[in-house]
Amino acid sequence: MSLLVTNIGELVTNDPAAGEGPLGIVRDAAVVVDGDRVAWVGPRAAAPPADARLDADGGGVLPGFVDSHAHLIFAGDRAAEFAARMAGEPYTGGGIRTTVAATRAASDDDLRASARRLVAEALRQGTTTIEIKSGYGLSVPDEARSLRIAAELTDETTFLGAHVVPAEYADHPDDYVDLVTGPMLAAAAGHARWVDVFCERGAFDGDQARAVLTAGAKAGLGVRVHANQLTEGPGVRLAVELGAASADHCTHLSNADVDALAGGDTVATLLPGAEFSTRSPYPDARRLIDAGATVALATDCNPGSSYTSSMPLCIALAVREMRMTPAEALWSATAGGARALRRTDVGVLRPGARADLVVLDAPSYLHLAYRPGVPLISSVLHRGVQP
Ligand code: NIG
Ligand code: FE
């Protein structure tokens, strides 16, 4: 079954060989999808015939968003903690334990239903690839079931047993690191593609983070790191040294951190929803891009520091608050996210890529930042199908 997406005002391909500039823009374009793959991209006048058609009505079309950082397996919410922050309380990450207690007490069905609802919410806003982390179980059975449920929803699953030290290990944290790198990793590895650690004061220090990441890598998992969110620390440099796919947050960076990101192939994944929801200073995307680092944007969707599934919101914040151009922000939310997941089949519209695309109720991607908060996603194709 083939589908012709036609009457596209402005098509973003992210394929510089296919069109204008780094976004590979084609005007007055069409796309042909065959099954779950893109079959053809080009000017509308040259489009081959197809079985069915989707009229973009002059709207912009883009690759589906790639949200490379989300924590969707949890129960409960922390709206009261958010309200307290907006009244002046700082964010410390201490609320993670509240969500751990609620998650442990929830049934499998409740966790599954809540995560499904969030994936569907993200999809309606144009997210066609999403990474999902564990990290609110923090026991062997609870981390294993979090990842089993995550794997029902995405291929991009991440073991975050090292999110914080749970209360029962507060007095002997190194025993918790032994649990994470031993039995917990063994139970998680079959359901996870990636290993992650929250390397931060109050969570895991550089040595503990190194132990978790090297054990994960030895078990065949790719590496990603929560790095330099609340303070400067060893996270970013450790991520680059270990060849991590991504260092996430990157809010507090020394010049050496910026140089390391610019010189390595670790993507700097920026999460503006977290700074928005914790009322913290935003990371400086301009500094990273100007130094030569690759930047991705993601939501960090979680009940504590960033309870949004909206990539359009992240784009708008990145443009307004992080000194990114609209073109850079769009690239980072699509192709950048794909880089952060080491994927070449998503975040791009070219023959052979996955047929994941977004049709806008606006003539150009520029409107995502220009018209913040407005629901501009008029339709989504995910694996060639309109959900
Ligand atoms: O990425 N920083 C660590 N983890 C999450 C926050 C989790 C929470 O507060 O529940 C983050 O922001
Ligand atoms: Fe996170």
Please give a structural write-up:
The protein is an alpha/beta fold and 387 residues long. The chain folds into 2 domains: 2-64 and 347-381, Urease, subunit C, domain 1, CATH 2.30.40; 65-341, TIM Barrel (Alpha-Beta Barrel). The chain has helices at residues 79-86, 96-105, 108-124, 140-153, 173-188, 206-218, 235-241, 255-263, 272-278, 285-291, 311-321, 326-340, 367-370, and strands at 2-12, 25-34, 37-43, 52-55, 60-63, 65-67, 127-130, 132-133, 157-162, 194-199, 222-227, 246-249, 267-270, 295-297, 357-360, 377-381. The strands form 3 sheets. Strands 1, 2, 3, 4, 5, 15 and 16 form a 7-stranded mixed sheet that branches. A 7-stranded parallel sheet has the order 8-9-10-11-12-13-14. Helix 5 links the parallel strand 9 (157-162) and strand 10 (194-199). The model has no long low-confidence stretch (mean pLDDT 98).
Structural features:
alpha/beta, Urease, subunit C, domain 1, TIM Barrel, 7-stranded parallel sheet, 21% strand, binds N-(iminomethyl)-L-glutamic acid, binds fe (iii) ion, hydrolase
CATH superfamily of the largest domain: Metal-dependent hydrolases
Shape: globular
Under the CATH scheme, which architecture of the largest domain would be assigned? Alpha-Beta Barrel
Report the bound ligands by name, code or SMILES: N-(iminomethyl)-L-glutamic acid, fe (iii) ion
CATH topology description of the largest domain:
TIM Barrel
Briefly note the structural class of the backbone: alpha/beta
What is the C-alpha radius of gyration, as a whole number of Å? 20 Å
Strand content: 15-25%
EC number: 3.5.2.7
Organism: Krasilnikovia cinnamomea
Binding site for N-formimidoyl-L-glutamate: 136, 302, 304
Protein name: Imidazolonepropionase
